[in-house]
Every structure is written in C-alpha cells, then in structure tokens.
C-alpha cells in the first residue's frame, strides 16, 4: 500500500529522494535538473510537495506542484525510488488531485526527450505534448507536456 502525504521539501526523507532523483537525471540526461527547482516554489499558496511512503513508512517517492501562471500548475521533482510498483502513478494521481483541489485547470511539466521512460509514463497518464514554455523555449532537448485537471480558477 502506498500512502501519500504533504511534506516540506527540506524534510530529511524528501532531501534523500530529491538527491536520488538528481543523480538519476544526471546519469540519463547529463543534467541533475537542480537548476530548475527551487524549494520555495513548492511552499505556500497554490503549491505542494508530496511524499509517498510504503506500508512500513519508508519514503519511496515524491513530487511537487508550483504555480506557473493563473490556472496552471507545474509538476517538479517527480520521482519513484523503485520503478514498476505504482509509486509514480500514485504520486502523479495525488498531484493531479491536489491541483484540482487548488483550483488549477491544467498541469504542465518538462522532461528531457532522452528520458524515454518518463516520456512514455506521462503519455500513458494522458499528458499531451505541447510547445515549450518558459525557460524551455528554444531548448530542443526539452519536451513539455500538459493535461487538463478540472477547475478553471486559481
């Protein structure tokens, strides 16, 4: 069983998972992705940081939402410590539910094209490729996705 809880990105368990994600991303893409993540962006109004725990309380995944623009949130630092056990899907579903609760109409995210596992994961989860936005404009290594989540206020 996977339990999802709100957490602070500076929690010790969160830091371990974020570091593991950074290491994995560096191995896959050549970049840890740390430059595009600010913990303060996922605190406060319209933001969230979630931890996934297993039945023994061990931290096994994480993900964050940050406000991007009115009505749109961005997913950051999505990570599952072990692939194929539903952790990523559980975290993503919780982030989508949180975004809807917060009043967002759409979620966006970016990953690297070379990260084919992540690309396939988001496509299977109903995300569609969109033109690059923000800091990803003009970066051919980046692929951006979006998915509607419901409400139209935020």
Architecture blueprint of SSEs:
Layout: E1 3-6, H1 12-29, E2 48-53, E3 59-69, E4 72-80, H2 87-101, E5 106-112, H3 116-124, E6 128-130, E7 142-148
Parallel strand pairs: 4-5
Antiparallel strand pairs: 1-2, 2-3, 3-4, 5-7, 6-7
What this model shows, in words?
By secondary structure, the chain is of the alpha+beta class. The protein contains three helices and seven strands. Strand 3 and strand 4 form a beta hairpin. It is globular, with a radius of gyration of 14 Å. The mean pLDDT is 89.
| Largest sheet entry | 7 strands, mixed
- Number of helical segments with 4 or more residues: 3
If you average the pLDDT, what whole number results? Answer: 89
Structural class comes to alpha+beta
Proportion in β-strands: 25-35%
In one word, what is the shape? globular
Order of helices and strands: EHEEEHEHEE
Q: Strand order across the biggest sheet?
A: 1-2-3-4-5-7-6
Distance between the termini: 32 Å
Compute the CA-based radius of gyration.
Answer: 14 Å
> Uncertain spans, ≥5 residues at pLDDT below 50?
none
Q: What is the strand tally? A: 7
Considering DSSP H and I runs of 4 or more, what fraction of the residues is helical? 25-40%
């Amino acid at each position: 069983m996977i339990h999802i809880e709100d957490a602070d990105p500076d929690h010790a368990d969160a830091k371990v998972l974020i570091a593991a994600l950074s290491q994995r991303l560096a191995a896959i893409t050549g970049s840890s992705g740390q430059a595009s993540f600010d913990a303060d962006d996922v605190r406060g109004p319209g933001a969230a940081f979630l931890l996934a725990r297993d039945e023994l309380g061990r931290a096994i995944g994480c993900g964050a939402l940050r406000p991007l623009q009115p009505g749109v949130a961005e997913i950051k630092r999505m990570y599952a410590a072990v692939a194929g056990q539903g952790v990523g899907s559980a975290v993503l579903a919780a982030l989508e539910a949180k975004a809807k609760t917060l009043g967002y109409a759409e979620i966006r995210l970016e990953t690297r094209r070379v990260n084919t596992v992540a690309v396939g994961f988001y496509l299977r989860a109903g995300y569609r490729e969109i033109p690059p936005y923000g800091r990803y404009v003009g970066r051919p290594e980046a692929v951006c996705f979006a998915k509607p989540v419901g409400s139209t206020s935020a």
